[in-house]
Amino acid sequence: VIHGKLTNALGVLATAAADGIVKIWDVSGDLPALRFTLAGHKGEVYRVAFDPTGRRLATASFDNTARLWDVATGQPMEFVAKHDDQLRDVAFSPDGSYLATASADGHARLYRWNEPGAESNPVLLPKVRAQKYSQIMAVAFHPGDATLVTVSSEGLLKRWSRAGEELGQISLNGVRLGDVAISPDGSRLAALAPRALYMWAYADLAKSTADSQKLIGLPRNTYCYSVAFSADGKQVAVACEDSAVRLYDAQSGELVKTMTIHNGPVGEIAFSPDGKRIATASADRTFAVLDRKSVV
Asked: Is the pLDDT of residue 50 over 70?
């Protein structure tokens, strides 16, 4: 198990692994119960995302494709998006009508996935930079203003319209960014580097400034992979290679708590949409679902 996402719409969690297998679990009871095993990818599944209803799951794989699945049946949907290199991330828009993909080929793409022929007619967000090895590492939709954000391996954060128009950027001058998150109220932005967490007011990105930048140093002896805001926006969680999950105050940047649940690198951290639970997924082949009240 490397990555996982929670949804409380149907009481399920999805996990993904290096063997290309995705599993959907029922986590509504005291113990998780396997509901479906999804086999279709030919490479590691790097990230997964539920749509806002919890009825569809998107999977992003190192086989250069993103796929959609019916959560109620475990069956693949007809949609398959293809890139020229490994997929790094997938995300649904808040209304569920758009699917965004991010790839090591240097492009992010935007699909109206439910329209006929959507796979062959995406909005192609321009390549981050002309350099050959630039990668788009993550993508996130703003919850309220019809924009989305990408982060790149060269330290560029960019804000886009759904028509592919660039609407602002912040450059961290070559910092390798691996993940991005936007607070549920849309006011805050967090970008994760291996050993640092950067935070801004979202308005800074729209103005292409970094006036409110807050830099949170992470332990130098580890490498961090995933960042997520809590449902109330008050905390930011970071998942790291040293088996730890760290919770920070979203305003002050102060460390609130360090949790060590696993015996291996933690590849993903996710909060349930209702804010009551936290899910972690680890390279130790386990995942955990915790009551948030028990850990904060």
From this structure: yes
